[in-house]
Amino acid sequence: MAELNDRFTDQQDDEKRRAPNSLLSFSAMLDGEATEQDIEQLLQMDSAELATQAEGFHLIQQVMHKEADMSVGLEGHFMERVRAGIDAEDDADLNVNNMDSKVLNFTAPVKVDSTFDIETNATHAKRTDWRMMLSGMAVAASVTFVIMVGSNQLLAPNSSSAHLLAEVRLPAQQNALAPLDKLDRDVLQIDDVRLQHYLRQHAEQAAMTVGQGMIPMARVVSYPIKE
Amino acid sequence: MKVNLPLRIFCLLLCCIGANVVKADTSEAEALNLLRNMTQSFSTLSYDGVFVHSEALNMNSMRIRHDLMAGVEYESLEDLDGDKVEVLRIQDNVISVYPNALLTNRRTPLPPMFNRFKNVESERLLKGYDMIVEPKTSRIAGRDAVSVRLVPRDNYRYGHQFWLDKDNHFLLKHDMMKTDGQLLERIQFTSVNFDPDLKQEDFVPKKDSYSEPVLDAQPRRVKNLWQFDWLPDGFALVWPEARSLDEGTSMLLLSDGMTSVSVFVEPTMKAKKLSILDMGATIAGERSINVNEHLYLLTMVGEVPEPTIERLMMAIVPRVDHD
């Protein structure tokens, strides 16, 4: 019996030891001071309780700041998404490293296409999403812990109101990059050599037609010189 | 007496309307005369001046010189701020010097080009613009100036305001504006000397101003295979023929007497949707067109609003009367 009591006491101590460690790591993450080791430890100890707490912290953060970019979405678990984000980031870094190892001396100029631009930025937004979530939480970490005391309802698991809040997502970033009415056309590039040639031809001919001597050719100097 | 009162009022109104019409006609005639004098002053006066060209956020100071020596016209335009671009004209030969890049020598295919445009195209201008001579004089580059405003009659062109030297009608300042009055481009002299001591050597490219000469192929006059279903009022083709550039490109030139639109057509293998480049006053548009299962790349450049370029690009069609 005493042995059993000793074992039970050891188990309780072990849990006590583990819980503060995980909270320390979690706190460090919120403060933006987490090391890779802290994050790995947190992810390995991804208990349902910890995840629920994290989700709750994040929802509070959303309510406080109303930031669309930081919304969580309904699907998936918060910590799982952090894990997925880190994995995706690692994959991206790996790809970049692979490119570096190939030593690309020259990158051909790529014509900027509005659709391509949007996709690129969307990808970029996806890649940075988890970082924004973490950094956003870190900035308001101390405030969040204070709010927790009086915000238990928001922290309650399966809170429908919390999930509704998490549903808000505005596509403002994409619209700012490319208005919808501009999506069906390209933007001509000034570094197009053929276009530069035509611009110079036009300036020279304009000088002959508008009766202002060679003054219209002043525009020629504002065109780039590439041959 | 009472019976005659309505008649009197009617006559008075008629006189007022008539006076306004006469005043408007006088103003238009005076404006056209000032513009004509301005055009001619560029080729008849000797001058050496510095002006500032500003467009959007760009600003460049330029030096312009002009003289008539032994019956030959010399003119030069030199960039004072940027890449030392220099454009020289000796009679009808235009030489553009781009330092460390190339020396381009182009001869105009339809001589005498400059002589041809020493007059204003009055009819075209009146179709596109209302003309107003401002009653007050102002002072530009230390000289008294009279001002002429060209207000566009439609949204297919920009507005203009010219400040001309009160004595010799030389252009001292020019603003190009959108129809809502927003300034697009400004040219303004800061100093000008109408008694310069210029020599032929002043109009020769300096030896160290370019790396190697590259001469463009001589443009040729070719039959124009294109026409427009629609043109803004006052716009017309400047040349009856097209101008053949290198690599099979045909060039057409449209003008309303004040502004111009250059049209470039060339065969292409690749379909291209409409693309637009906005450079302040200058708009460039590009798209491919399909004619009898042949693709052509169409490029237009002009100091006109974007909708004008877009509509012109839809209005170009093959000429029906060509062989």
TrEMBL record, chain A:
<keyword id="KW-0472">Membrane</keyword>
<feature type="region of interest" description="Disordered">
    <location>
        <begin position="1"/>
        <end position="21"/>
    </location>
</feature>
<feature type="compositionally biased region" description="Basic and acidic residues">
    <location>
        <begin position="1"/>
        <end position="18"/>
    </location>
</feature>
<protein>
    <recommendedName>
        <fullName>Anti sigma-E protein RseA N-terminal domain-containing protein</fullName>
    </recommendedName>
</protein>
<dbReference type="InterPro" id="IPR052383">
    <property type="entry name" value="Anti-sigma-E_RseA-like"/>
</dbReference>
<dbReference type="InterPro" id="IPR005572">
    <property type="entry name" value="Anti-sigma_E_RseA_N"/>
</dbReference>
<feature type="transmembrane region" description="Helical">
    <location>
        <begin position="132"/>
        <end position="151"/>
    </location>
</feature>
<keyword id="KW-0812">Transmembrane</keyword>
<dbReference type="Pfam" id="PF03872">
    <property type="entry name" value="RseA_N"/>
</dbReference>
<dbReference type="InterPro" id="IPR036147">
    <property type="entry name" value="Anti-sigma_E_RseA_N_sf"/>
</dbReference>
<feature type="domain" description="Anti sigma-E protein RseA N-terminal">
    <location>
        <begin position="26"/>
        <end position="98"/>
    </location>
</feature>
<keyword id="KW-1133">Transmembrane helix</keyword>
UniProtKB/TrEMBL annotation, chain B:
<keyword id="KW-0574">Periplasm</keyword>
<dbReference type="Pfam" id="PF17188">
    <property type="entry name" value="MucB_RseB_C"/>
</dbReference>
<feature type="signal peptide">
    <location>
        <begin position="1"/>
        <end position="24"/>
    </location>
</feature>
<keyword id="KW-0732">Signal</keyword>
<comment type="similarity">
    <text>Belongs to the RseB family.</text>
</comment>
<dbReference type="InterPro" id="IPR033434">
    <property type="entry name" value="MucB/RseB_N"/>
</dbReference>
<dbReference type="Pfam" id="PF03888">
    <property type="entry name" value="MucB_RseB"/>
</dbReference>
<dbReference type="InterPro" id="IPR005588">
    <property type="entry name" value="MucB_RseB"/>
</dbReference>
<dbReference type="InterPro" id="IPR033436">
    <property type="entry name" value="MucB/RseB_C"/>
</dbReference>
<dbReference type="InterPro" id="IPR038484">
    <property type="entry name" value="MucB/RseB_C_sf"/>
</dbReference>
<feature type="domain" description="MucB/RseB N-terminal">
    <location>
        <begin position="31"/>
        <end position="205"/>
    </location>
</feature>
<protein>
    <submittedName>
        <fullName>MucB/RseB C-terminal domain-containing protein</fullName>
    </submittedName>
</protein>
<feature type="domain" description="MucB/RseB C-terminal">
    <location>
        <begin position="223"/>
        <end position="316"/>
    </location>
</feature>
